[in-house]
């Protein structure tokens, strides 16, 4: 990262390229059966003679085994096991009994699931592989997420290894979240209806926290450099966000690249994810030059000419309050470590 905004980028650093010249809940069946068996056995024990009691002691395991087999059959029929169609149409995920069943209404669970699916479809990178439980996978497909991007998790112990995003289910709290997906990037609902969208990070929670601390320090430093750049204007609130490291690394790099060509004003940062403290991934800018529309169109071309991870999800020029503005947004999740390989220059 360069010491000053006027210094040229050091050899070997990664910089954003310029655009090419413009060309034109009820009790489960298992609970009901267990209670029924218990009451039936107790009645028989109280009514029987000691001799019959002794006989029951060896018959009881066989009876319980038979009833357990019946329970398994009923659970399959009702769709409580993984892979059955009714397990998707009902709210319950397979392989686990709902946590705190009955404390959240089905409507609350459905609403949280719908909100999460809509946010993922609109905000998560189109190349991301998403690990999800069958109920959530079904909701994502209904929102247009391709089945090829989904990694169904059949039970609470299923590994999401290979996915870049993991979505928890209200009825399954995976024990592997810290190991595979320690980064919360959004959440919807509350209590036992809460759905979490998490970014998968190699190395687990400890490695993720260390990488997050380093990335936050780099974002704070880069933000402070941008504030010293005379070609960009910020409001007091946006300046505070930059100093706090609350802006996505890809946005910081993009703003630095645009400031090497044009003068402009940042009117807002946006797209902080619901229910999670993550960097802002969207910026809206307006030109302070005499040819505002032309400058913003050229800046849009620069943004669209980038390669991943610096290619935004969209870069659009539109009118706001009678003047043209350029909105640039990057997809979730925000990557860590980019600023260690990128020099921000004026």
Short overview:
40% of the residues lie in helices and 14% in strands.
Considering the chains and any ligands shown, give keywords for the structure.
alpha/beta; 3 domains; five-stranded mixed sheet; 10 helices; elongated; disordered N terminus
Describe this structure in words.
- This protein has 346 residues and is an alpha/beta fold.
- It is 40% helix and 14% strand.
- It is built from ten helices and ten strands.
- The chain has helices at residues 29-47, 50-77, 85-89, 106-123, 134-142, 177-180, 204-227, 236-243, 249-259, 292-304, and strands at 130-132, 150-152, 165-167, 183-188, 195-199, 232-233, 264-270, 282-287, 314-320, 323-329.
- It has a five-stranded mixed beta sheet. A five-stranded mixed beta sheet has the order 6-7-8-10-9.
- A hairpin with a 2-residue loop joins strand 9 and strand 10 (323-329).
- It is elongated.
- The model is unreliable at 1-15 and 20-102 (pLDDT under 50).
The pLDDT mean sits at 76
Helical segment tally? Answer: 10
Largest sheet: 5 strands, mixed
Shape: elongated
Number of domains: 3
Task: Draw up the topology in text.
Layout: H1 29-47, H2 50-77, H3 85-89, H4 106-123, E1 130-132, H5 134-142, E2 150-152, E3 165-167, H6 177-180, E4 183-188, E5 195-199, H7 204-227, E6 232-233, H8 236-243, H9 249-259, E7 264-270, E8 282-287, H10 292-304, E9 314-320, E10 323-329
Parallel strand pairs: 1-2, 1-3, 6-7
Antiparallel strand pairs: 3-5, 4-5, 7-8, 8-10, 9-10
């Amino acid at each position: 990262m360069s010491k000053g905004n006027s210094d040229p980028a050091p050899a070997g650093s990664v910089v954003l390229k310029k655009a090419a010249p413009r060309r034109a809940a009820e009790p489960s069946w298992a609970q009901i059966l267990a209670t029924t068996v218990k009451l039936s056995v107790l009645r028989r024990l109280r009514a029987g003679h000691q001799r019959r009691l002794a006989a029951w002691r060896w018959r009881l395991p066989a009876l319980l085994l038979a009833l357990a087999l019946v329970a398994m059959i009923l659970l399959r029929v009702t769709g409580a096991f993984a892979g059955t169609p009714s397990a998707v149409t009902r709210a319950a995920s397979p392989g686990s009994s709902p946590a705190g069943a009955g404390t959240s209404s089905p409507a609350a669970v459905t609403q949280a699931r719908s909100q999460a699916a809509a946010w993922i479809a609109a905000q998560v990178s189109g190349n991301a592989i998403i690990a999800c439980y069958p109920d959530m996978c079904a909701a994502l497909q209904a929102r247009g997420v391709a089945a090829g991007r989904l990694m169904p998790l059949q039970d609470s112990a299923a590994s999401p290894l290979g996915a870049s995003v993991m979505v928890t289910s209200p009825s399954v709290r995976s024990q592997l979240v810290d190991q595979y997906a320690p980064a919360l990037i959004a959440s919807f609902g509350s209590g036992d209806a809460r759905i979490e969208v998490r970014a998968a990070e190699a190395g687990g929670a400890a490695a993720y926290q260390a990488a997050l601390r380093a990335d936050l320090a780099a974002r704070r430093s880069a933000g402070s450099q941008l504030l010293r750049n005379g070609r960009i204007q910020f409001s007091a609130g946006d300046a505070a966000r930059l100093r706090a490291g609350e802006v996505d690394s890809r946005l910081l790099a993009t703003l630095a690249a645009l400031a090497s060509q044009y003068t402009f004003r940042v009117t807002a940062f946006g797209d902080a994810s619901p229910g999670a403290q993550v960097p802002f991934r969207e910026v809206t800018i307006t030109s302070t030059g005499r040819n505002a529309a032309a400058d913003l169109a050229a800046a849009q071309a620069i943004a669209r000419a980038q390669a991943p991870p610096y290619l935004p999800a969209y870069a659009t020029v539109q009118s706001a309050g009678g003047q043209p503005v350029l909105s640039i947004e990057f997809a979730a999740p925000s990557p860590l470590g980019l600023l260690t390989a990128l020099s921000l220059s004026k």
